[in-house]
Predict the structure.
Amino acid sequence: MITQNTKNFMTIASFMMAFTIAIGAFGAHGLKPYLDEYSTDIYQKGVSYQFYNTLGLFFISFVSYLLPKSSKIKKSFYFILSGTLIFSFSLYILALSKIMWLGAITPIGGSLMIIGWILCGYCLIKELKVSA
């Protein structure tokens, strides 16, 4: 049996991945005629970060199965999720609107992702027991 947290994490990660694929395809096909090379690169950067961190959310779902009582893993998941959304969506909007001050929001998302991954690593070191 898995915990409700693990189920929630896997469900969120699954829908996040489906959304990542859809928004990536939309950018590659639907927006291609409207974006210059610079904006396409910015948009693609958002898709890449969203994809890789969504894979990471699946990893954290597995860790939450191993550590069902860990509040640190739960916090890690939500730091990474919120950071990814802020980071990637600020880049999507920047690419589409060319409102340059949105670039100042992107590092907030990046910082949240970094905090989440550090918290995950700390949790693995402190809470995951290794058998001999």
Summary: The chain has one domain: 4-127. Helices lie at 4-30, 37-66, 71-97, 106-127. The CA atoms of residues 31 and 130 lie 49 Å apart.
